[in-house]
Amino acid sequence: NAGVMQNPRHLVRRRGQEARLRCSPMKGHSHVYWYRQLPEEGLKFMVYLQKENIIDESGMPKERFSAEFPKEGPSILRIQQVVRGDSAAYFCASSPLGQGLREQFFGPGTRLTVL
Amino acid sequence: KNQVEQSPQSLIILEGKNCTLQCNYTVSPFSNLRWYKQDTGRGPVSLTIMTFSENTKSNGRYTATLDADTKQSSLHITASQLSDSASYICVVSATGSGTDKLIFGTGTRLQVFP
Q1: Across chain A, where does the E strand assignment appear?
Q2: CB pair distance less than 8 Å for B102 and A104
Q3: Which single residue of A83, A95, B94, B111 could bond A102 by disulfide (Cβ 3.0 to 4.6 Å)?
C-alpha cells in the first residue's frame, strides 16, 4: 500500500515559466490538501480538494496559482509565471472519506527552485 | 490571529536521555492538536492526535500532553535514539465547515548525539 506520492521531487524553473506539481493520494483517499513551506517557516495551508471539487482555497494566492483533483489521475498544483518568492517545498497530504477526525498523510514534497 | 508557537527552537541531547518539547497555541475554535515528526527532506509523519477531551496520549516512546485551559501542549521523548533526530512540529486544527484546516508551528529541531 504505497503512501502519498509526489513528483517531481525537485523542480527548477526560471522566472516566468510554469511549474506543475503532481500528487497521487494514498489508495482509497478522496481528500487532498496542499501546503507550502518557505525556508525556516512552518507549513502553510493552501488548498483542500475532493475529487473534481475545490472545497477550500483560502490559503492559495489569488493570482498565478491553481489546483485541481480530476476524477482520474493525480491532483495538480499549477503555478504560472513563477517568481523567486515561489521557491519553497510544496507538500501534499491525503485523508480518507469519513466523518470525524481525519488523519492526514503527507507526501515527501516537491522542492521548487526558481532561478 | 491563529498561531502556534513552539520552544525551544532547537535542542541537542545525548542518546538515551529524555527531553520535552513545548507548544503554545492561540487557535479558535479549537478542534484537535497533533504532533508530527519531520525528517530532513521528508514529509511530516503523525505521532499523536488529541481532541479537547484528551489530556495525554502515547505512541511508543513519545507522550503528548494537552492542557486546553492554558492552551499548552508538550511532547515528551523517552530514552532518545539517534533516529529521533528530526524536526517536531505541533499542529492545531481549527474547526471549520468540515475542513480540517491545520495550523503549523515552526517546529523544534532535535539533534541526538551518541
Answers
A1: 5-7, 10-13, 19-24, 29-37, 43-50, 53-56, 65-68, 75-79, 88-96, 105-106, 110-114
A2: yes
A3: A95
